[in-house]
Specification:
homotetramer; globular; about 325 residues; 9 helices; seven-stranded parallel beta sheet; alpha/beta
Chain lengths: ~325, ~325, ~325, ~325
């Protein structure tokens, strides 16, 4: 059974990755990395984690010990410096290996990429659209996942310059770190746009689509989940393209005409919903994608990618069943 | 002192109008209309309303008794049928008199306008942009107010076909009526678009701007407040236009560059915030307007309009002071 | 494989029961009853329910067809009138069979029990405390489950007259029905007590404990989950009693000293958390139980009870794994 | 006109005090103290604060300059060290001068009181119950205010040992500081008790009542507001005592029988609601008090106290009018 280690297991995406690994029938967890919790039992992160799990160790110790699959849930800059171990499936949930053009990192991520030459060894993998092409996998950003699920299948049937993506995300998208914009006194009963025109998922979307778009994220007063409302000028019929793209998928569901997408229906799951509307007033089409930023937008997709790289059934370990209210 | 009566005083917009009338130093409340609460004391609506207020009476009785100012907080169809009393400032908070073209009512409101010929006697009044021109005042919709504050001052400096308005509103926008989409089990920890391409504020915005736009509203898990994110392709510099439009306003505040608009900062107030951003990736500009759907988006604006029609200071009775957290 | 039918499958508790049945490896769903959705496909309730599920049929038709296990998710009065089919495990999630003394129904439920003589054929079953004693199972109320998990193991070690249970529940506890107190405009940014001294779970708790207590529920602005804070005057050491009671449980977790219980940690699960604190000021002990009102407080417990009655592993179908944020 | 200065004006209670001072017709703001914002304009705290306000200066500079009224919104330990200027009304919103017995500070506040001998120069002032007795005023804690409004008027008519206060507060009660328990990822869709048996408002309540009680606070997923549910064993009729205590009050409203108190109705106001219920099961009475922790629980009460000390109308500057939804 392939062994798994998680670097940065105590952040939100690390904890969610752990959740999927624990429910995966064909993976064996061997190490939990966390510099802040090193030496502590797993229950120090969450009392639901029982005593049979490995204790946290420093991230460097995890790297030294190795595993068949490595989930990297570190900060962008730390992840960028990582030398990937040989013969290992490495799924990087940070943005450190998503942009093929290293020159983009200073402007969008705020640092020079320390291993620029190695970037083309990584494949940007969004299973329904671009499955992983090797062992080194750059897991897409949450906003990018939603925008690409909505737009990539129809990219040839819309006017590129017309695209606007207005996205709304729960606060877990900003991570567990303490900051003013994650303080509940700011988040509750509020909504605000942020990093308008400057969010690091914009170049990732442009790279995958082949053209730039206008992208604005907003912070919602919800714990988790993300809704991307995508406005496009269509040049052909869009519904067949979307339905074909996800026809066999257990993960992405294209809603029938008239069914409204809901954040709540994808929260705590690794699935996504896509709905298509027309706007008779402007002639635009509106494609809406809902997913859980920590599920399909992070840990769920990371597991899908790892499963594919290992030759396993893509949905093992995922949170897909269930019809919770 | 001018006398005031409110029709439909027991709904959200009626109650908020009452709130402003009570804090207005130069208006005298003489009647509270409500068919469902007729005969009850004001405290039946809210225990904060004390015993010195008039009891609720049927709306028809209010009309018969008359007043110098009449605030109409009834449903659209009911309000449309109203024959306005002579020599009375009538501020209609419903959509019944907003569209000058009666032919639009069946498609957008679901009924034939019963007094189509009288529509041109009403002025669509948004004080900062188009002050009331007579005694019969159609008070703008909440979404329309936000979109127009953001777009009307720059309408000549943008490409009309480029405009997308993605709006998000708290649940009070849907009124006090019981319906599935206002059930807390649906609203909490959720967001969803609704009436995509079919919302009745779209033609109202088009009428005021002179061109149609793409408009999609979303329901937020907050009690009140509304944020409209407007995407435009600029053809000239926009900031001076916005700053000039609201330079002397005590109601609308154009935020300095880099200051992020927040729903929370306008909740429970009659003010609005406008912020302008550029998106270097797409070349678009993003104009964001935040206001309280029950304040500047309804009752606050209704009072502004009444004040202007009576020749009073525009801000009397408004909730503008204050720097609450 | 035992067959399962659900009466009232379109309400919250019905839908959650369906969720558990679908994830149960040894039960076969054969019928979904709903009078309001009869004739509709399962997806009419929730688009996550796929086409292989049975269509909804009228509840009476479900009863006629029969099944090995029947989950009754109907209103109290409707469930009370039900004649249970022979040779069937019937788990009633309503309150219709919880009180052994039929004379209590008019005061607490508002109706005369139509089958009073049959009440003693039902066992009030809370698996960790009182496992089912036959095929007819009265599933405990959500508040009662929380209060009893906290209090039943220590009932002999506290002064009965000292007990106060202050409980707080999410809005799903009030069901999917439209009512003023479930309107999001009332629920959001609010909390209020309700049915003080008159809630129907009070006599159920008293019956199970053997003495009456003071119980006050409050409505929280959350979708789901319930926290019961129980105040008691101890006469002996309480921690060992709680730890012993749940020592082997996969469902109920007694938290170590100093660990604070959280609603969020049990939401969407069928588990429960119990924490014990002392109050040095008053000499009281405070026992806090957190659970999901739709999980351990309803559907999860119903599955546990059905599993036990069928001789299956108690936790089959339950939502227990997982360490979601 | 009396001049006013605020120390610690950039925290939640400081900002709310500023809000009341700005709406007060007979006070003149002369200085805003904040060590973190010293040198910045008032708008650095909130863009709603306009340019005519004084810039922030260091707290020590405010003290040196002096004013007729000084509102102290500093941390407990910092406030305790303050040497109050002569001939000045000083209202301390921290806990530094609430406990008359200096020996209690180490256990409940974590520090030795640096000016223990001066403590008896301060009066603990809750206007409806104990008006200020001099210029040095210790403003009560938010929980203590709610508990005392509910319990002080009935203290002689209940069994002291029976009292349990279960309180629930919005997140603003924990201040603007960044900490794990104020992170929105923790607060949203959650509730949890905290500092059980160890909260610093417990001794303050005991001191004012003359006997200790059992007090447990909980953190609610709301921005602001506080509800205290108080359980007591009555020895006489309680309703007349409550109604008499607040008969002439414009601030505290005793609700009629059957009216349910609501947090939402007191949010953003300086008022409080009290409701009395009986529990026929246990014979207990339940007194519920709702107020805004930043209003009547902090800044509103501070203004009341200052008004009384200055001989002004008690409600000047308060947020009392209004019937917002």
């Amino acid at each position: 059974m392939p062994t798994v280690a998680i670097l940065g297991a105590s952040g939100y995406s690390g904890q969610e990755t752990l959740d999927r690994v624990l429910r995966h029938p064909e993976l064996e967890l061997v190490a939990l990395g966390s510099d802040s919790l090193a030496g502590e039992p797993a229950s120090a992160l969450d009392v639901r984690l029982n005593g049979s799990l490995p204790r946290f160790v420093a991230n460097d110790a995890v790297l030294e010990a190795g595993a068949d699959v490595l989930f990297v849930c570190l900060g962008h800059e730390r992840a960028a410096a990582l030398e990937p171990p040989a013969d290992t499936v490495v799924v990087d949930l940070s943005g450190a290996h998503r942009l093929q053009d290293a020159a983009l990192y200073p402007a969008w991520y705020g640092f020079e990429h320390p291993r620029a030459a190695a970037l083309d060894g990584w494949s940007y993998a969004l299973p329904e659209l671009f499955p992983p092409a090797g062992e080194l996998i750059a897991n897409p950003g949450c906003y990018a996942t939603a925008a690409l699920l909505a737009l990539a299948p129809i990219a040839e049937a819309i006017e590129p310059a017309s695209v606007v993506v207005d996205a709304k995300s729960g606060v877990s998208g900003a991570g567990r770190e303490l900051k003013q914009s994650s303080h509940a006194g700011f988040v509750l009963e509020n909504i605000s746009p942020y990093r308008v025109g400057r969010h690091q998922h914009a170049p990732e979307i442009a790279q995958a689509l082949g053209f730039p778009i206008c992208f604005v994220p907003h912070l919602l007063p919800v714990r988790r989940g993300l809704l991307a409302t995508c406005y496009v000028q269509p040049t052909a019929e869009l519904r067949p393209l979307l339905e074909d793209a996800f026809a066999g998928s257990d993960v992405v569901r294209v809603l029938s005409e008239g069914v409204v997408p809901e954040l709540a229906r994808v929260q705590h799951t690794d699935g996504a919903e896509i709905a298509l509307f027309d706007d008779p007033v402007s002639g635009r089409a509106v494609v809406v994608c809902a997913l859980d930023n920590l599920g399909k937008g992070a840990a769920g997709q990371a597991l899908q990618n790892a499963n594919l790289a290992l030759g396993l059934d893509e949905t093992l370990g995922l949170r897909l069943a269930g019809v919770l209210v």
